[in-house]
Design goal:
The complex is a heterodimer of chains A (about 725) and B (about 70). Chain A is mainly α and about 725 residues long. Chain A has a domain of about 450 residues. Chain A contains 29 helices and no strands. In chain A, helix 8 crosses helix 26. The termini of chain A are close together. Chain B has one domain. Chain B is about 75% helix and about 0% strand. Chain B has three helices and no strands. The longest helix of chain B is centred in the N-terminal third of the chain and has 26 residues. The chains are: A mainly alpha (about 725), B mainly alpha (about 70). At the A-B interface, helix 5, helix 9, helix 11, helix 13 and helix 16 of A face helix 1, helix 2 and helix 3 of B.
Amino acid sequence: MSTSALPESAPPTPEGPPSASSRMTPRSILLWTAVALVGALAWGVLALARGEEISAVWLVMAALGSYAIAYRFYARFVARRVLKPDDRRATPAERLEDGVDFQPTDRRVLLGHHFAAIAGAGPLVGPVLAAQMGYLPGTLWIVAGVIFAGAVQDMVVLFLSMRRDGTSLGQMARDEIGRAGGAAALIAVFAIMIILLGVLALVVVNALAHSPWGTFSVAMTIPIALFMGFWLHRIRPGRVVETSLIGVALLLLAIVGGSWVQESSLADTFTLSPTTLVFCLVGYGFVASVLPVWMLLAPRDYLSTFMKIGTIALLAVGVVVAAPVMRADAVSDFASSGAGPVFAGSLFPFLFITIACGALSGFHALVASGTTPKLIQKESQVRMIGYGAMLMESFVAIMALIAAATLEPGLYYAMNAPAGLLGTTAESASHAVAGLGFTISPDQLTQAAKAVEEQTLVARTGGAPTLAVGMSEIFSGVFGGTAMKAFWYHFAIMFEALFILTTVDAGTRVGRFMLQDMLGNVWKPIGRVNWKPGIWLCSGLVVAAWGYFLYTGATDPLGGINQLFPLFGIANQLLAAVALTVCTTVLIKSGRLRWAWVTGIPLTWVVAITFTAGWQKLFSDDPRVGFFAQRERYADGIDAGQVLPPAKTLDDMHTVVTNSTVDGVLIALFLLLVAVVIVNAAVVCVRAVRSPVPLPTTEAPFVESRIDLPEQAAEPLVGARS
Amino acid sequence: MNARHGSLLSTARQWARTVRWYLRELTGEAEYDRYCDRHRRHHPHAPVPSRREYEVLRTHHRENHPQSRCC
């Protein structure tokens, strides 16, 4: 019996050759004109309305209209003219079908898989921080960035990897660019992953510090996942859907339970300082990465997927139904002055660094060259899976931006400026916010904290608490009213923490394998995947590496997010630069110089923003921006025996000096590695252009597909009609 | 009235089936059925592994093929 048949499943509709269906019918011309008009109207309202309050629905319409047009026209153009997918050609999923790694999969199912793998906390956090520059620059970058850069990168990498039997980005860099470029790319990928895990874990620490409700409910996810793992492994093997539903129900119970714990004598047990939380997370990360996957990682992943899709759908409904009004400025003064408290630096390049996921995220290239290319059923589906999933992530980023920009600006700054600036009381925070040019009274600040049943909202940096307050406003406007605000706040915190912990689990494990692989070249035994001491050592090293950044972030006198988030953004965008370099090189090598601009322009842009930002982070004279200027200022202070605020002791001063040195050196290293990849690629491109015959590429040879002819197909499709 | 009721019911049933299909495919729950089909075709005389045995194989594979989750 095959239970995989979908009742009303449409058969896959491979796109025909370009000439066959490129002419539009009058009806579709009418439809697309209407879509274009609605999108243009929404952009017009956003651009022209000043001094009056704008509904968030206009943002949603502008974004959705643009996505629709981009998907229908630009993505199709890139696919048909540049990539030229051929549905007569068998994909690796068909040719190498083994029922495990390679399996032709229904495109809708694969879209879900791919989306769950690329979307996480990134598109939720970046836009919240970037709201300090106003909602308009962020919205423009998220929409234009995804259409011309992010989604193009994801689709092209997916396509290239699919044509190479699903090889990884690092391997493609080595095969198509060269040994130096390949090695630099490999080290860059590893280093960037470490920073990413450290910064994401910091977001969780900042969201849970001194919050017994949040800490309890997030801590409960561990026993819930263990229970699910046990249930799936021992009692009802393989019944994932029912187990996940039980898990989600328990999760909701844990959120409700947090409110009781907060009122009870257990509250003190769950009220933890940032430093304690850092050690808990590091310990958790290590244990999770050495335990068998069925115990913790796999069930947590299921929970996270369910929560992700459910909450994002809920948020979309909430935004449209509640139609909140934007309270932030369209473009704030910090956009041009560069003196914003959330992150330092001017709009160019720092806005484009801060919003990475949602517009352009290099990390996606790792996913797009991982499992997904091995599961694609037909080549033309790269448009829906690569481009389409990224558009969905971009929409998540737009909703996060809306949640942040619909908050009162006074509250936004009281939550997101660093603790050193705001002090610890509602009074000091109110005073500091007034100094930034916004108003919130101490009473309002206390009330806002009380509404979500938190001790304080002052300096709750990292983006997660701000998003949670914004989401609780939107949700409570639609479901449950003000009485439910505290529940929705903690629901949102739980939802983000769950994502991040899943990323931390999986990332530590991936990092461990990469490290074992690299060290295995030096000393054989450590590369063996079954040798326990090797596993423990490498897991320990990976956890210690991201744990170091987490610890410095949690204890940084200048505010960890403020210091580390730019590092994270630059790292992620540099990875995008590597991915786009690989794409452009392959296009040129395969005789498509004419179309190389499709990835070449986003590449130029991302190189411009990352190298400008990196340069400023290294050499700016402004100590708020430049790491080395900052180092010098505090080192001079130490020499003069002074304590410079926000540092409170001489120890703090030494901490600042160490941290800014490490951060500065890391940025320099990242830039150097990426420069090596780009220079190596440029040499290869020049050689390719000059060569009279095409240079060899590693594309797998053509094999005719049999999937269109079901009676001949050796294997049934995943999810296909039986 | 009754006919409308019936068609509503069948639409709802169809929706429920679609959702169930999607979730089973997305979580990989449906993989076992396909595995059995495949096994019977390739090894018609060997006994098909039980669900429990299959899940052990699947977790073992997952153990050594970690998948990165993005930010």
